[in-house]
Each structure stands twice: as C-alpha cells, then as structure tokens.
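Box 3.1 A note on notation
Throughout this textbook, protein chains are presented in two layers. The first layer is the amino acid sequence; the second is a token string describing backbone geometry. Keep the layers aligned when reading.
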Amino acid sequence: MITGTFPIDQFRQTDTPFYFYDMTVLRDTLSTLQAETSDPRYHVHYAIKACATDTILRTISEAGIGADCVSGGEVKAAIEAGFPANKIVFAGVAKSDKEIVYALEQGIFCFNVESMEELEVISLLASERGKTARVCLRVNPNIDAHTHDKITTGLSENKFGIPMRFLPEAVQLCYRLPAIEFLGLHFHIGSQITDMTPFVQLAHRINELVKVVEALSCTDEEGNSVTPTVTHINVGGGLGILYEHPNHFPIPNFKAYFDTWRKHLQLRPDQHFHCELGRSIVAQCGNLITRVLYVKKGENKQFAIVDAGMNDLIRPAMYGAFHRVENITHPDNEEQLYDIVGPVCESSDVFVENYHIAAIQRGDILVMRSAGAYGETMASQYNLRRLPGHITSDFS
C-alpha cells in the first residue's frame, strides 16, 4: 500500500469531503501519452466531461493536447483554459443553436455531427454568418464494447450517431449543403474498455467504411461531381483503467491502445488519426477524501458511515462501479469487514459492501482512489448538500 503520497496533515485541516488531485501522477500520465503519440498525424483530444477542474484543464492544455467537448459550456471552458480553438472538437446529440453559433464564432476545428438533421441546422447557422463548418460524421458502427450497458454507445439501438446504412446519404448531404466542409468520420463505442478486442473490431469496421465513403460519387451545391476523401478519422475514446490496482498500475496501458490502432487501422500517409481520451488521462490522479462519522454495528454487518455521499461520487450508485478505499489514518490496523456508506437518504448511497480495510474508527480519513474521472464533474447538491471542493498536490 502506498500512502506516503497523501498529505494527511493537510487533509486533517481541510473540510471533508473534497477531491485531491495528484499533479505528479497527471504529468507522468501526460508524458507517457505524448511518448506514444509522437507521430504528427496522431491527435489526442481530452474529453472534458471526465473532469473540468480548472487546474486539470490548464495542465492538460499546456501539454499540447486538444479538447473534446459535448456542450457549449465545455467549449467555453476549453477556450478559457488555453486549448487552441483549432484543437477543439464538439460532439453531442443535442447541440443547441446557441452552442453551435458560439463554436462557429470561436473557429473550432470540427463538429462531430450525429444526425442529418443536425447537419442541416449547422449548415444554416454557418451560412447565415458567412462561416464554414468543418464536420466529421459520427457513425454508429454497431460494435459491442462489452462494458456496462449505461456507458456503451456504439450499438445500433443507442441514441448516438448515424446508422451505417445512412452513411452514404449523410456524406452526399455534406457536399450538397452550403457552408459545410466534410473532413471524415467519427466513432465512439463506449467507455472503460480494457480489452483491446472491441478496438480491433472498430478498426476493421472503419477500414470498410472509409472504402465505402471514398467509392461514392457526390454532387456539390453547384452541381459539380465530387469524390469524397476521408482525411480525418476520429476513433473516440473509451480506454479504461484498472480501478482495483491504482498503486501498481497508476498509468493506463497507452502502448497497447495505440499499438492496436497502428496495427489494425489502415491509416494512409495523407490521413490524420484522432482520439478522445478522458478517463485514462485523469482518473488515477484524482481521489475523494472523506471522514468517518460513525462506525455502526448491525446484526450481521458493521457500517463505516462517512461524510461523502453519492452526490459527491455517483459512480458506485449509478454504475455499480468499484473504487479502492484506503484508511490513511490507521493504515497498519488489522483489516476488518465493512460496508462503507454515505449520508444521503437513498439506500443506493453505498460505496463498497463487504469490504476488507484497515480497522476504522470515528474521525479516520479514508481515500477513495481513482476518482478523478466522472467524480467531481458529476457531483450534485442532492439533499441540499454542498458541492465538494478540491485541492491539488501543490495545495492550490
């Protein structure tokens, strides 16, 4: 167990619950990621939805990585954090007119378009403003990521993307509409994927679809014949982490991920590869810090009741997700069995059940590991609880 990296004296002086971000872990993760993407054709966009804390965003933007946004608010946060507009992609199934106009005015690199109806709206709004919208078409490849059903996004019945059979029609529409520049294809099949097999399947599906697109004969708005060219391929995100072993594997296996694409995706010299990583960049640098309020004896169990709740970290309640929990006040105590639960008035406000951890006392500080992704950014004020704050390893 590694507990020396946690400044427990600082934690004792800070109101709990709060998030703690280890910036050394983040910078090491970014360095490893950059080493695997030295090819100038490879472009990484950080998925801001994973964690939008300002310090995190600025550190990632300073590393030269782009941004993947799914709302106008995220586009604005990316711009304010220093991400160049020409490295920002904007996805999402329900972009409002106001969000589209804002992104157009900022001159973002690309809209990842999820329907032909959306494509027509972007064309209209761009035309009215004398702008050209660069687009990739998000295709639903009908590939099962074999992950939790609530974070699977690439099946034929998901709300995301354009069905494959409509792709030729969507590409032809790109060329008929004014103020649209077709760049290529976008995909995203799900999240928390640790087996590379779904990515291999996606690579082969992309290879097929690129051939389909480039075999089309299209007509532009002036009636000229055009042959589409796919210059940009965006494979989305989805790379997972090992939540069970944050101390032994603090950095995801970026090499296996990119080796998969290098081996199976038929990327031509004139094509650019894009991916949108979120969880794998920030998850393991973040931790939820909480205090034990009570140790309650049940008939057959004992409960460690902490001051953090599902409103602070919703992943266990929503997805049944696991986070390693450590007692950093008394790490050397003999282990006992607990259900670690929060104060929210919902029976689903449970972090772990039947969990072995160093014996807990009232006032002990517990750390919920690998909570940097979809932790603070999904926090709410349910039960009128305050939002959790955060500190970093620089104590900012």
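Residues 197-214 form the longest helix (18 residues). The chain has a mean pLDDT of 94.
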